[in-house]
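The methods section describes the discrete structure representation at length, but only in general terms. What matters is that the chain and its backbone geometry are given together, residue for residue. For illustration, here is how one protein appears when written out as sequence plus structure tokens:
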Amino acid sequence: MGGAASASSMMGGTRFVEDAGRRVYAFELVPRALADFAPGYEYHQTSPDSHFTRGRVVSRLLPSGRVTLRDDRLITTDLAGGKTETAVDGDWRRLLAEHFGIA
């Protein structure tokens, strides 16, 4: 996203958040039980169509943005939406320790 997204419209109980006129996401202020999310996390953990099951991925939110290690690339994203991708040589252990504190 290029800047701070803001809630811009509401239809029924659904609120829509837009950034630069583009709908970014929608949400409802309705209490949910953890079990309501079971189909979603089942899909992300097991479906061959989920990008989480297609390869290795680790991501960490930082004050300055996000850092993600995905298969053969290291991706850094800043708060303004700028993105840098760097090819990695497969040295996952070093990158996990350096960027994620995982030894």
Remarks:
- Helices lie at 38-46, 92-100.
- The first strand starts at residue 6 and ends at 11.
- The CA atoms of residues 44 and 50 lie 5 Å apart.
- The mean pLDDT is 86.
